[in-house]
Design goal:
The protein is an all-alpha fold. 77% of the residues lie in helices and 0% in strands.
Length: 196
């Protein structure tokens, strides 16, 4: 019976090992710090922007975790939640671009040396919030660093969504597994009846 349950509800969760989650967590942590440093609470407009940026960053991280946890019984839910995470990070990306534009700060290009330096950090296995902390020293560097991380997270989420979609088409989801298990169970009971 245990084996049947394992077939029915496969291993799920494990989101902390996903690169997309790890990168999104960095985006969240750095966004919280960025908002403390560079978005004043003096006006209602700044407060709303601050809150929306933190919520978008949080949504990116949390929806990856929730989708991974739901994947055991619903691949459709997992795909939907990972898509929400991707959309939230896209919203956050626009907020950072707005921040730079409205303050007449430079949006770094993909080929700039600073961008290449930040992108290279993605290959470190020991990276944490502290790895990027020195890049928060001024608003332009801070915003562009987090933009780089958002692009990395979005790239990983795009790949994850493509993989999830392909797997869902090939293997189906919980409903298909449930049908197969019930069919097997009925066949087993029918065989038992004929043996008596």
């Amino acid at each position: 019976m245990q084996n049947q349950n394992n077939n029915l509800i496969p291993a799920h969760g494990g989101y902390r090992d996903l690169k997309s989650y790890q990168t999104s967590e960095l985006v969240y942590d750095l966004t919280v710090e960025f908002c403390k440093l560079y978005l004043s609470y003096k006006t209602n407009m700044s407060y709303r922007t601050n809150d929306q940026m933190i919520q978008a960053a949080r949504s990116g991280k949390q929806n990856i975790a929730e989708g991974s946890q739901a994947s055991g019984t619903s691949k459709k839910t997992e795909i939907k939640l990972v898509s929400v995470a991707r959309a939230s990070l896209e919203e956050l990306l626009l907020d950072y671009e707005d921040f730079l534009r409205q303050r007449k700060l430079l949006l770094w290009r993909k080929e700039d040396s600073q961008v290449r330096e930040i992108r290279a950090l993605a290959y470190r296995t020991d990276k944490t919030y502290r790895t990027y902390e020195t890049y928060l020293k001024n608003p332009e560097t801070a915003a562009n660093t987090i933009i780089c991380l958002i692009h990395q997270a979005n790239y990983l989420l795009d790949k994850q969504l493509a993989s999830l979609g392909k797997k869902f088409l090939e293997e189906g989801g919980f409903t298909e597994r449930l049908y197969k298990e019930r069919t097997k169970n009925r066949s087993y009971k029918t065989d038992e009846t004929y043996r008596v």
